[in-house]
Amino acid sequence: MKCGFDSEKYLEEQAAAIFERAGKFDDKLYLEFGGKLMGDHHAARVLPGFDPDTKIKLLQRMKDKIDIIICIYSGDIEQRKMRADYGISYDADVMRTIDVLGDWELTVKAVVVTRYQNQPAVRGFINRLARRGIKVYLHKPIAGYPTELDTIVSSKGYGSNSYIETDKPIVVVTGPGASSGKMATCLSQVYHDFQKGIRAGYAKFETFPVWNLPLKHPVNIAYEAATADIGDVNMVDSFHLEHYHTPAINYNRDLEVFPVVHRICSRIMAPEQLYHSPTDMGVNQLGFAISDDEVCQQASAQEVIRRYFRAMCDYAMGSADKAPIERIKLLMDDLGITETDRKVVSPARDAMTSAEKTPGKGFDNIFCGAALELADGRIVTGKNSTLLHAASSCILNAIKLLANLPDNLTLLSPEVIKAVASLKQEVYHNKGISLDLSETLTALSVSSPSNPAAKLALEELTKLKGCEMHLSHIPPAGDENALRKLAINVTSDPRFTGRNLLQE
């Protein structure tokens, strides 16, 4: 896909905007980071050319001026809330974030556990961090939050929270997901600084929705699709429109909470520091770095379709209700697109149909297809068999094509496949014996020293990064994990590959 976004321009303009905002406050700026701190693949998909690690690169440029605080809601630890993009829990993601920041020479000043209520699972998390030398602060629920201002802005509210000592003029406050307590932590710090005579302020590092794009722009619609599970809705910022007489786009939660935030800030910040709208609170130069709007519109429409498939699979697996599906379907109707506008959907379904017609039955009479679009637009397909999963077949076909190997060449000998299948059946007692993608790639790598064709094919795997793929079925764990590590954008039909409730 063509490039539609200038990451370097965005880095420069966003850094300048942050320093300009920090200059509005004499002593310190608490900057709430919305969205993903690193690996922002949603932004990379809807804005081709956006570097997924742009934010962390920005922080590295500013490292002499910033401290970093990570917030995590205690309830998310207790309920083992998961990040779908990485397949890990929120508490594990906090530790991953600390490690990744360290790799970028960025140090986390502290971790704040918000709305802490002495949960045993949370205490274990706190102990793990503390024993690794990481400072942990506990903020308990504030009675009447966020409406009872006399309690909130008092020694019984923000004043009861432990004050986090920081050294730098800009304090970045981030977290693994929405409702981590980032805003409350920022405002709590501003309150404490106010009591100490320190002129501090608050702002939000924003990404989506993009305030200076139209309400129904596909980039903003893609944000609504991405947050359909939590009910975010883009809206015209009425406060901004009333004060400045110009439209700006924000979302429902910020608009709903702004009157309360404004009243809180009016008690702990100087009048000239107050914001007139939730859009004013944000620092967001994203829209100014779009270099090809048409490319971004097309990419965003594709993201909406991806989110639709994700919502249908979540519903099929029992992890979500129907509301997100219905919401995203309406967004697709607004854009005039259907699920088959994703180029790999029909070929994957055709491959499944082909598998059904192929002599010899698939495992347990379940037939599956897969299709992958290469960077040059070519479509490669695969279907399942008694030896290989559909994803395995498709990836092998793709890397053979990229390596200019004959289509009829067998990369993995049947003997190798049968040896792995025998291990699965006789030692692991798996009912499914055909090789998933993780097993297939492992077997291929083991074969490569004695198989030059396998070695050539393996060298092409990195070219699959960012490619589009569709499966006619919900991928089992071995397929899903491998596809995630290959950084392939995968969607699937809400169809299981077997009759067992525990899908292998």
Question: What does this 3D model show about the protein?
Answer:
It is a single chain. The chain contains 20 helices and 15 strands. By secondary structure, the protein is an alpha/beta fold. The strands form four sheets. The protein has a seven-stranded parallel beta sheet, with helices on both faces. A four-stranded mixed beta sheet has the order 13-12-14-15. It has a two-stranded antiparallel sheet with strand order 3-4. The mean pLDDT is 92.
List unreliable stretches of 5+ residues.
Answer: none
Q: Which range best describes the helical content: under 10%, 10-25%, 25-40%, 40-55%, 55-70% or over 70%?
A: 40-55%
Mean pLDDT: 92
- The proportion of residues in beta strands is 5-15%
Largest sheet: 7 strands, parallel
Number of strands: 15
Helix segment tally: 20
Q: Overall 3D geometry? A: globular
For the biggest β-sheet, the strand order reads 6-5-2-7-1-8-11
* Straight-line distance between termini: 34 Å
Radius of gyration: 25 Å
Secondary-structure-based class equals alpha/beta
Question: Keywords for this structure?
Answer:
alpha/beta; 504 residues; 15 strands; globular; 20 helices; 44% helix; single chain
Summed up:
The chain is of the alpha/beta class and 504 residues long.
Question: Helices, strands, pairings?
Answer:
Blueprint: H1 7-22, E1 28-33, H2 41-46, H3 54-61, E2 66-73, H4 74-78, E3 82-83, E4 88-89, H5 90-103, E5 108-114, H6 120-130, E6 136-139, H7 149-152, E7 170-174, H8 182-196, E8 200-205, H9 218-226, E9 234-236, H10 238-244, E10 249-251, H11 252-268, H12 278-281, E11 282-283, H13 293-316, H14 323-335, H15 345-357, E12 369-373, E13 379-383, H16 390-402, H17 414-427, H18 437-447, H19 452-458, E14 468-471, H20 477-485, E15 489-492
Helix pairs in contact: 1-3, 9-13, 9-14, 13-14, 16-18
